Amino acid sequence: LAKYKGELTFKTDAENPYFIYCKLRKNKKEKATVLRLTDSKQFSQIGEHSKVELNNELMDLLKHSPKDSLILTHVHPDNTPFSGEDILKILDYKSIKALTLECFDGSQYIITRRDNKFSLKFLLYDKRSKIDEIYHEVADTKFPEAYDEKKWEKISLSFVTECAKQICKFFNLDFRRLK
């Protein structure tokens, strides 16, 4: 987050994202935080093990903030990178400049838009259906064992990572692993 808005300082451990992350990791819960770049104000919500349903305040912020004025960051209590649902946020809300993620093992990912050009893909495709299609295409062509419950745990991280890369490539987003 500091990359986008200078150095952030925290008065207490309770405000420090790393401290919060360690606590969430221990409790195996996801957390989403929206950073408003204009004033560095943070808005957070704790979810369940595998998702965060954004409350009305956060949804209003995403819907009504100016373009590229927010960073949506969250933590996964496991080691999987962005899900299709995560990626939909940056596709659906132009207010989001970047989508960041930190996983249980300390790995960090970021998604940003490659350019601000309008794409016909946003009109021609139902985004959710296209994301589902990409998941199946990746499973069929690169991870046929994804359909085998016994093998899923072994390949899930690689599979979800490849799906995130392919979804981002299709929608002209930049997907990077930072750490």
Can you describe what's shown?
The protein has 7 helices and 6 strands; from the N terminus they run H-H-E-E-H-E-H-E-E-H-H-H-E. The chain starts with a helix and ends with a strand. Helix 4 packs antiparallel against helix 6 (127-141) and helix 6 (127-141) crosses helix 7. The protein is of the alpha+beta class and 179 residues long. Strand 3, helix 4 (84-92) and strand 4 (96-102) form a beta-alpha-beta unit. Strands 2-1-3-4-5-6 form a 6-stranded mixed β-sheet. It has helices at residues 2-5, 17-27, 56-64, 84-92, 121-124, 127-141, 149-170, and strands at residues 31-36, 41-46, 70-75, 96-102, 108-113, 173-177. Helices cover 41% and strands 20% of the residues.
Helix/strand layout:
Layout: H1 2-5, H2 17-27, E1 31-36, E2 41-46, H3 56-64, E3 70-75, H4 84-92, E4 96-102, E5 108-113, H5 121-124, H6 127-141, H7 149-170, E6 173-177
Parallel strand pairs: 3-4
Antiparallel strand pairs: 1-2, 1-3, 4-5, 5-6
* Alpha-carbon Rg, integer: 17 Å
Helix and strand element order: HHEEHEHEEHHHE
Beta-strand residue percentage: 15-25%
Flag low-confidence runs: 1-24
Arithmetic mean of pLDDT: 79
Strand order of the largest sheet: 2-1-3-4-5-6
Major sheet summary line: 6 strands, mixed
Q: What is the number of strand segments?
A: 6
Overall form: globular
* Number of H/I helices: 7
Helicity, in percent? 40-55%
End-to-end gap = 14 Å
User: Structural class from helices and strands?
Assistant: alpha+beta
